[in-house]
Structures are given as C-alpha cells and as structure tokens.
Amino acid sequence: MISRDEALDLVQKHIKNKNLQKHMLATEAVMCELAVHFHEDVEVWGLAGLLHDLDYDKTVKDFSKHGFITVEILADKDVPEAILQAIKSHPGHVERESLMDKALYAADPVTGLIVAAALMHPSKKLKFVNTEFIERRYKEKRFAAGANREQIQSCETMNLSLHDFIELSLKAMQSIDKDLGL
Q: What domains can you pick out in the chain, each with its CATH number?
C-alpha cells in the first residue's frame, strides 16, 4: 500500500495552494480520529483524507471530474479500492456506500467550518476554540457559507450527533494545529 510519505509527496506535487494542502492535512487528521472512533484502519482512512482533493487544481473548473482525475493519478500506485471509492464518492458523483465514504463526505466541509471558527476566535488558535463555539457559528447561515451544512450534518448517517462529530473533528485538528498554522 502507498505510504503516507508517498501520499504527502503527491499532495505537494499536485497541489500548489498551501491552504488547500492544509485542508487535506486537516481532513486526514479528522479521518484518522473517526477511524479510531469506529475501530477502523487508521492508516487507510487517513490516506483517504489526505488524498481526497489531489485533483482539485485540475478539476476546479469542471467539478464533474473531481475525484475521478485523482483515481487516474493514483492508477499506478498501490492504493486500496476502498480509498479510491471514498475519493470518488466525496464530491457526490457516486453513491456513498461504506462507512469510510460517509466519513469523508462529512469530514471534508467540517474542516473549513473549524478553520473559519478558529480565525474568528479572538485568539485565532485552534487550541482555544471549543465545540460550543463552533456550534454557535454553525447555526449562523452566512458564517463559513462554503462549509456545506447538509454535508456536515450527514455525520448522523454514521450514528454520530453533530455535537460529537464537531468535537471529534476539532480534537483531530487541534492535534496538528502547528501543521495547520492555527
């Protein structure tokens, strides 16, 4: 299986925007935390999070190809089919079947919500943000409007309350706050 270092090299090669790289690291961290919660393979789930937007620069103008180009990029790498399926399903192009598919779909936008909340917090630091602060911001429709609330709320399809999902996601991102610059 592809190593995390190989995956990170691919991210740095294909994604030039540092904020998008940080988003991918944040999604990896959230996916790892969810894997622990659900007693799943942390390495596999983390790789799905890290690689999920690998084609973003190539598909930003044609979202219908998002996910599929990543699968093409990874074709000659040893990437488990479950990761490829999660990557294809996270933009909503193919049905989300597995728990990992559902987790990636919900994890993707929650990272943006948490970053936006941290930047709004007086400290501008993740370590000082709490779940309740994020939940208050979540209820403000115009706050972090790009963070799709319906997608985040889909955490409930995994039998996770919104509160618990935000709490797990925040904990994950706080664990890599230095990598995220927050």
A: 4-180 (1.10.3210)
